[in-house]
Structures are given as structure tokens and as C-alpha cells.
């Protein structure tokens, strides 16, 4: 397990799976939430809590900079709309 974390920049399997899910496109309403439940076994609320924390994790940025930077921009745009 420790070797796996080193190989993936310190990220665990669930963290990598969350980023992989975010790289995918979802065509219709509810499809992403369904994938979150079925593929990750998480409630959507918990998923988004974990994702938000992951976006602030430098290990995630090093592992998948394109996805993390895109999601950071989206998050920042939503915050500035409030």
C-alpha cells in the first residue's frame, strides 16, 4: 500500500478515483451523482467535501495539475458569484 502511494505522489486510491471521476464528462442530470454512489460508494455530499479538500492538497495538484487547476478555477468563480 505504501509503495502504491509513493508511485502516485502520495495519493490514496479513493483520492485518485475522485480525480478520475472529475476528468469524465457527464451528459445528463443525475448521472454524476449516480456514478459517485455506484462507483465510489459515497453520498454526493461526502464526495464533494472530499473533492473540495483534495483541491487544496498539493499532492493532488502534482498528480493531476490540469484537473485540479480547472476545478480550482470553477470553485473560485462560484465563490466570487456569491
Kindly list the characteristics that best describe this protein.
0% strand; 6 helices; globular; 76% helix; mainly alpha; 82 residues
Principal-axis shape? globular
Count every beta strand, where a strand is a DSSP E run of 2 or more residues.
Answer: 0
Structural class: mainly alpha
The overall average pLDDT, rounded, is 91
Q: What is the number of independent domains?
A: 1
N-to-C SSE string, H for helix and E for strand: HHHHHH
Topology readout:
Layout: H1 2-7, H2 13-23, H3 31-40, H4 44-55, H5 58-63, H6 65-81
Helix pairs in contact: 2-3
Please summarize what this structure is.
The chain has 82 residues and is an all-alpha fold. 76% of the residues lie in helices and 0% in strands.
Describe this structure in words.
The protein has 82 residues and is mostly helical. It has one domain (2-81). It is 76% helix and 0% strand. The protein is built from six helices and no strands. The chain has helices at 2-7, 13-23, 31-40, 44-55, 58-63, 65-81. Helix 2 packs antiparallel against helix 3 (31-40). The protein is globular, with a radius of gyration of 13 Å.
Amino acid at each position: 500500500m505504501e509503495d502504491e502511494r509513493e508511485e502516485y505522489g502520495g495519493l490514496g486510491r479513493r483520492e485518485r478515483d475522485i480525480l478520475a471521476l472529475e476528468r469524465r464528462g457527464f451528459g445528463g442530470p443525475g448521472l454524476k451523482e449516480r456514478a459517485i454512489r455506484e462507483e465510489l460508494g459515497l453520498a454526493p455530499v461526502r464526495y464533494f467535501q472530499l473533492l473540495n479538500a483534495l483541491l487544496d492538497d498539493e499532492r493532488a495538484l502534482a498528480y493531476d495539475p490540469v484537473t485540479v487547476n480547472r476545478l480550482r478555477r470553477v470553485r473560485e468563480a462560484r465563490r466570487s458569484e456569491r
